[in-house]
Design brief:
The complex is a heterodimer of chains A (309) and B (203).
Chain A: H1 11-30, E1 52-53, H2 65-70, H3 83-87, E2 97-102, E3 108-111, H4 112-118, E4 122-129, E5 134-144, H5 145-151, E6 160-165, E7 185-189, H6 190-194, E8 199-204, E9 207-208, E10 218-220, E11 233-239, H7 246-250, E12 274-277, E13 284-285, H8 293-296
Parallel strand pairs in A: 1-4, 2-11, 5-12
Antiparallel strand pairs in A: 2-3, 4-5, 5-8, 6-7, 6-11, 8-9, 8-10, 12-13
Chain B: H1 2-30, H2 38-66, H3 76-98, H4 103-112, H5 114-131, H6 135-140, H7 143-150, H8 152-167, H9 173-202
The chains are: A alpha+beta (309), B mainly alpha (203).
The complex binds protoporphyrin IX containing FE.
Subcellular location (chain B): Cell membrane; Membrane
Cofactor (chain B): heme b; FMN
Transmembrane segments (chain B): 12-29, 49-67, 79-97, 117-137, 149-166, 172-192
């Protein structure tokens, strides 16, 4: 039941998948540099990305770029909401290598720009609901996490995906104090990771991600609270055990593994029934699964919803 | 002459310093600098200034006596009233802007969440102190009972720090700093009030 939504998990199927991908890469290459976004030189600041629109986008007013880039929780740069915008420039997001390993047939490390060339980019306008009861609407640019996972050939024993952020106190001054046990860690069940909504974002508003939003690559899981959206990822690992996640390690009574948006389950210190959409004065009602129930509620059938915070 | 002028400026200067954090909030508001989440920012800023003014109120008596700044005593009442004002505004933003006067929700919040319960109790304790600050009321009270009542400020400051500790998500450095400040002020006061008694006993 745990992996009911995960496609092609028999080991023998996976080779075909890899072949398909290799072929597609070749075609993309032959078609010219159309998909090459910002290869080569390392972009000091935002560079435009090539992407196509996607039907999973929602039709709501987007939160202005200034707010999306000026109001962040990214404790690696400090615990204030303005700290990331002030200090994230200390991080070098190019060159950047991501390691994908664990229970898969083709583990390895890949350069971020190579990765961006490998997968067609899409724009996904998603709601983002922070566990602190505020929300935004953000036009991400990225590719489905499922595409990456399929490309490395997950073994049938893989049940979870574990993620890690860069750990380097010289680039991330917030890591000089042990507010959280660094590096930041997150995790998903494999079927959650394979859900078509789950995105690896490399851009925002059509440009490469600003550092304070998790450059060069971050996770976006729109039906979960924002803390699940791990930023500046250096490692993705397939595993058969539920991974430890940072906020759960810090306060297990306040943050669960799932972190699904649920207006009926309060945070111990505040209600989750409503949220303040950034830019609006009156609060909105929070929607179960942040409004994505149709796409994801089936993943949790038979589980106690009170355990899904 | 210059001295007289300085004296005349002293009171407005203290007034302006006390009002500055509030004026700054208005200035930031008019110039769109209250961050992407103004309600949260203003709520927190006012709470922090409430706590800072409570600490200042406690510091005045000590500074007047031991740093030889007796003129500060003239402003103790005013600083204390500003502490009350910042906390009252903090509460107002909580009720009106953060919770849109949804009384059912607010009631549940006060009952369920210890940091809100403590904050509310601290505010309730501040009310009699503010009322008995009025000169007319104070005159009608016995000095001894007025002083006993106003020692509650220490309790309120401790509750403010507890409130702060309980509400932060992970970073307890700032609540720790205020805990240290309040502990120091309380400690200094205890030492100071123990000393003359000992002196008297010895004499
Ligand atoms: C003596 C009374 C009080 C003091 C000294 C005080 C002080 C503070 C301080 C220092 C903060 C944190 C600011 C920051 O994070 O930068 C704060 C936040 C807060 N206070 Fe108070 N407060 C008091 C009373 C109250 C009352 C009566 C309420 C409501 C009933 C309240 C509700 C809140 C809330 C909701 C927050 C923000 C929590 C968050 O953003 O997560 N406080 N207060």
């Amino acid at each position: 039941m745990l992996i009911r939504n995960a496609p092609d998990l028999k080991d023998c199927d996976v080779t075909d998948q890899g072949l398909y991908l290799a072929r597609r890469q070749f075609i993309a290459g032959a078609a010219g540099l159309g998909l090459a976004a910002c290869g080569g030189a390392s972009p000091a600041s935002a560079a435009p990305l090539k992407y196509s629109p996607n039907r999973m986008s929602i039709d709501e007013n987007k939160t202005p770029l200034d707010d999306v880039t000026g109001y962040n929780n990214f404790y690696e740069f400090g615990t204030g909401k303005e700290d990331p915008a002030a200090y994230a420039k200390m991080m070098r997001s190019r060159p950047w290598t991501i390691t994908v390993d664990g229970l898969c047939d083709r583990p390895g490390s890949v350069d971020i720009d190579e990765l961006i060339r490998r997968f067609p980019l899409e724009e996904r306008i998603y709601r983002m609901r922070c566990v602190e009861a505020w929300s935004m609407v953000i036009p991400w640019v990225g590719f489905p996490l499922a595409s990456l996972i399929k490309s490395v050939g997950p073994k049938s024993s893989a049940k979870y995906v574990a993620f890690e952020t860069l750990r380097d106190p010289r680039q991330m001054p917030g890591q000089r104090s042990a507010v959280i046990q660094w590096p930041y860690r997150e995790g998903l069940r494999l079927d959650e990771a394979m859900n078509p909504l789950t995105l690896l974002a490399v851009g925002l508003y059509g440009q490469t991600l600003p550092n304070q939003n998790g450059a060069p690559i971050r996770l976006v899981v729109p039906w979960k609270y924002g803390f699940k959206g791990i930023k500046s990822i250096v490692r993705i690992r397939l595993t058969d055990r539920r991974p430890q996640t940072s906020w759960q390690m810090l306060a297990p009574g306040e943050y669960g593994f799932y972190g699904n948006v649920n207006p009926a389950v309060d945070h111990p210190r505040w209600s989750q029934a409503k949220e303040r959409r950034i830019g609006e004065f009156f609060r909105r009602k929070t929607l179960p699964f942040n409004g994505y129930g149709e796409q994801v509620a089936h993943l949790y059938r038979g589980l106690d919803p009170r355990k899904l915070y | 002459m210059a001295r007289a002028n300085a004296a005349r400026l002293e009171s407005p200067a203290v007034w302006a310093l006390c009002a500055a954090p509030l004026l700054l909030i208005f200035y930031w508001g008019f110039t769109s600098q209250l961050t992407a989440n103004p309600v949260e920012f203003v709520l927190r800023d006012l709470g922090l200034w409430g706590l800072r003014f409570l600490c200042l109120t406690l510091a005045v008596t000590l500074l007047a006596k031991y740093a030889n700044l007796p003129w500060l005593m003239r402003y103790r009442r005013r600083i204390g009233l500003w502490a009350f004002a910042y906390v009252a505004l903090h509460l107002t933003v909580y009720l009106g802007a953060a919770h849109e006067f949804d009384w059912a929700e607010i009631g549940a919040d006060i009952a369920k969440r210890p940091y809100i319960t403590i904050g509310m109790a601290a505010f309730a304790l501040l009310i009699p102190l503010a009322v008995t600050s009025a000169a007319a009321v104070r005159r009608r009270m016995k000095p001894r009972s007025w002083r006993a009542l106003h020692r509650l400020v220490y309790v309120i400051a401790i509750m403010g720090v507890a409130h702060y500790f309980l509400l932060v998500k992970a970073d307890i450095r700032s609540p720790l700093l205020y805990a240290a400040i309040v502990a120091t002020l309380l400690g200094a006061r205890l030492v100071a009030s123990a000393r003359p008694r000992k002196a008297r006993a010895a004499g």
